Every structure is written in structure tokens, then in C-alpha cells.
Amino acid sequence: MLVVMTTTNPEGALLELGFTDTEAKLFCELTRIGPATGYRLSKAVSKAAANTYQALESLSQKGAVLVDDTDGKTWRAVPADELIAALQSGFQQRSETALAALKTLQAPQAEARLYALKTPQQVLARARAMIASAQSVLLFDLFPEPFAALEDDLLRAVARGVSVAGQIYAPAHTELDVVLAPGSPAQIDAWPGLQVTIIPDAREHMVALLSRDAERCLHGVWSDSPYLACVQHSGLAAELVLGAQTSGRPLKFKPALFASRPPGLDELLGPPSGD
Fold this sequence. Notes:
This protein is an alpha+beta fold. The chain is 49% helix and 18% strand. The protein has two domains: 10-98, Orthogonal Bundle (Arc Repressor Mutant, subunit A); 114-269, Endonuclease, Chain A, CATH 3.30.870.10.
């Protein structure tokens, strides 16, 4: 599985979850010392009392702290697993609401432009969306780590009836139609990162290079241009055919552009004569 490393510092982890600096400090302090008053907490984290109480109220709304009002306000942090469960539940609800709202927007026509991809998360999210959108034919070229991260998504595409084939760079026990790149160990050693190439239906394509530790996107582009996707499809298909011939392991379908006739080719040229 391709994992993108993030901070292991408790306060830093909370900042990544959307907590403010003061909220993160207060939650961690409450976890360390146990129940405490706002006054004691403001001294412990060196924050003004007004800012401390404001942050504690915000934490209460997030479900991160409990408050005892019986004899002045005393605050207590909820257990970490309870906090994360509450945050996940809230995020899921907000995500579903946002998705329903966003789906009411009308998507524009393809712009046939190249767009930069900046992060590994963006690369993997775009790759999964492209795989999920494939209707007919999908080609890929993946180094071992990205292949392991995307294999299940590719298998789901096959289960939907999509013809999927790709080039990999290390032997793998997989049900996917794959070709092991000739000289792959040397290519892995020589190439400056982890290669990710996805081409669904020759309608769009993505080419990206992640750092070897998968923490950075060194180069990455995505385009919705059928022309560029057809060119990429044609080139990768030729590599797959050659690799299959060299290995003596035939592919399950003919991936060549005109043989597989992906939808992007029809968008570029018009439907085949007689249709």
C-alpha cells in the first residue's frame, strides 16, 4: 500500500485535522494532566484567558472535551479514539452533503488542457477517479508501490467489464492482464522516482512521477484532451504488445488504439464508418 507520511507530533496531528493552534495545545494539555479549569489551562499553555475559553468552547462543539458545570467549569478531554470517531462521523456527514450539492453543478465541456498535479494525494485521488470513470478500455504503467495502491481499483474496473491491461516493473500475483517491463529491475534503479500512468478510454490521461518515499510529487500532469490521450494510449499499447510478445504471455485483448477502439478515438475522429 502506498502511504503518504505525515507528522507524528500530537499537536501537529490535530492541526492537520483542522484544529487551531490553541485548540491543539489545550486538548493535548488536558489529555496529559486530566480535568482542569480554564484558568489553570490558560496558564499551562500561556494563552490569554479569553482566548482559552473561546478555544475550549470550540473544542466542546467538536466533541473533543467535556465540561462539568457543577462547581465552576472544569474541562476534560475525551479519549483519543472517541475524538477521532466523532470527527470521522462528522466529516462523513459533511462530505455527503457537499457531494450532493456539488453534483447539482453542471460540468463544462472538455477543455483539452494540461493541468499540473502537485501532491501524491492528488495523484492517487485523480488516478482512482479516472479508473472509476473508465467505460471501455484502460491502460496503465505503474511502478510496484503505485500498482499495489491501485490494484483493487483496477480489479473493480475489470469486474465492471472494462478491458484493462498494463505494464508493471516487478513480478506480482494478480488477476490483472499485465506485462512485466523488460529489464525492469534496472529501470526501477535508474528512474528518478515512482512512475504512475493512467489512460482510461483514450479520453484523458495522467502521467506522474512520485519521489521514491512517496512523500512528494516530482512531476505530474493530467489532461482531458482526447487527442493527447489517444497519443499516450497508442504509445503504451505498443509497449504492451511488444512486452507480451517478448515474454510469450499474450494479452487478453488487443490494446492497439484502432484495434481496441476506445471512446476517445471516436470523439477525435467520429464514429467508425457504417455506424
